[in-house]
Amino acid sequence: MVIGIWVLGTQLSQQQAALQSCQSEKAIVPVIMIESWELVTQRPYHQQKLVLIWSAMRHFAKTLQQAGWTVSYQIAHDFRTPLQNWVHDNQITELRVMRPSDRAFISWINQLDLSCEISLLPNNHFLWSTEEFQNWANPRKRILMEDFYRQGRKRFNVLMEANKPVGGNWNFDQENRKPPNQKLTPPSPLKFSPDEITQTVIKEVKSLPFNTYGNIEPFSWGVTREQAQQVLSHFISNNLANFGTYQDAMVSDQTTLWHSLLSPYLNLGLLHPWEVISAVEQAYWEQNFPLNSVEGIIRQILGWREFLNGIYHWVDLDYDQSNWFNHTYPLPDFFWDSNQTDLNCLKEVLKQIEETGYAHHIQRLMILSNFALIVGISPQQLKEWFHATFIDAYEWVMVTNVIGMGQFADGGVFASKPYVASANYINKMSNYCQNCRYNPRKRSQEEACPFNFFYWDFLARHRDQLKSLGRMNLVLGNLRKIDSEELAEMQNLAVEWRNQHESKLS
Ligand code: FAD
Ligand code: SF4
């Protein structure tokens, strides 16, 4: 039997399952890595995302070679041709691949026409395997992140003392919603200068013959495991202490605040979630960091990240087509060009994504996704947009975050109510409204903020469906208190806005 290993672009760890299964035979087991246009022509990806993935792959191939593996690194239009030739030339009888995170890609690999057996090994880049999550979820009547997270804390013994959560509480979210009322001075993010390999990729991406998105330079993401580890250390030394407190704040020109910027590296396999959780927990025990911050970041990684990956593999295959509210309005053009909108919060966040491919969680959820939901934009078009434009976006994390959490298009498989808010929330949690031509306090007259009239229009349009969700009763009660003439005025503004923007669509 001749084993060959195919390392995918999001599996860049020497400990990944396929490489690990042949550690002692690395001198004789060939490895292939393929940089292909097949996937990247599907949507207009952010140029920095292409640079990040291809540069990280090229660096990882070198790392493997230095570690004693024989690596064939191929640049091709598709995956199938180089694979078939390589299998043939090396007389491979078993192709080993760690199971990808993307379900469609798993099916695609399974039906590949190769002259050898294909073995998919369980993905070890998450703490919960697909089967373990299913065993947890299947017998349950309710699928709540909080229940899953507590189970994870106990199972992996994280922030626990004698079977109880450290500090007596599982959750410190109440302490983690401070608005940016005073001047904040967050640390600068760690930036890396492009080395020779990255510079070559930048040149290549600049001359790609298909549509891409965003600015390619300045490119300052890390592209190696060592750099990803430096980002983690930098986070612990400079950001962790305040991570929790201002987790939900949004500030112009301070795009990253105390966030970790770890998602691009976790999602490529350059960091393992366990090493992040262990390092943060160790810092807590040894350096006494504030518990709200420590628990806050651990909840994101041990809780949300693992939970949403579990959900992605647990739901039906057509989950990504869900559209509970039947929203079909097309994605406005300004999502692709921040200059085309005069809503300052959207403009600032979209500009930041053009420049870096990054926005933090509340910008994604309460600005971009909230806006799409209250306007009634197609969840599938929004998902495609997120997938193309974000530095850390992959199918597993898109489907659950955009379709499920952001758009509530699944009707509440794991969330108990949609995340919708008016300008009130944005004005409280950010300083965007200070430089906006709209007035966050107006909802129907001149200068009325679109977040306001769309918010009430959304509640009115879907009031019957929303009634079935107990947690919406309070806001539906507020809706009933609005004078019918004013509600009609807001609904007219919403219709006018939609018509105006639809007519501009290219
Ligand atoms: P931090 O705020 O520092 O959080 C630490 C880590 O927690 C993140 O690096 C991430 O690995 C993990 N995490 C936190 N929340 C989630 C979550 N909901 N799902 C998965 N991981 C989570 N995350 C992605 O990795 N890729 C995406 O494409 C993506 N798209 C999103 C789209 C929408 C509409 C929403 C609401 C969320 C999305 N998220 C996505 C989740 C989250 O917003 C990002 O993981 C986070 O903002 C990344 O920045 P950070 O590393 O600075 O995060
Ligand atoms: Fe956004 Fe409205 Fe505030 Fe302007 S006023 S920044 S559109 S929430």
Describe the 3D structure:
- The chain is an alpha/beta fold and 506 residues long.
- The protein has 3 domains: 3-121, HUPs (Rossmann fold), CATH 3.40.50; 130-214 and 223-314, Serine Threonine Protein Phosphatase 5, Tetratricopeptide repeat (Alpha Horseshoe), CATH 1.25.40.80; 321-503, DNA Cyclobutane Dipyrimidine Photolyase, subunit A, domain 3 (Orthogonal Bundle).
- 48% of the residues lie in helices and 6% in strands.
- The protein is built from 21 helices and 7 strands.
- The strands form 2 sheets. It has a 5-stranded parallel β-sheet, with helices on both faces. Strands 6-7 form a two-stranded antiparallel sheet.
- Bound molecules: flavin-adenine dinucleotide and iron/sulfur cluster.
- Flavin-adenine dinucleotide binds at residues 259-263, 266-267, 297, 300-301, 304-305, 308, 360-361, 364-365, 369, 386, 390, 392-393, 397-398, 401-402, 405-406.
- It comes from Euhalothece natronophila Z-M001.
- Residues 169-190 are annotated as: Disordered.
- GO terms for molecular function: lyase activity.
- Keywords: Lyase.
- InterPro entries: Crypto/Photolyase_FAD-like_sf, PhrB-like, Rossmann-like_a/b/a_fold, UV-DNA_repair_photolyase.
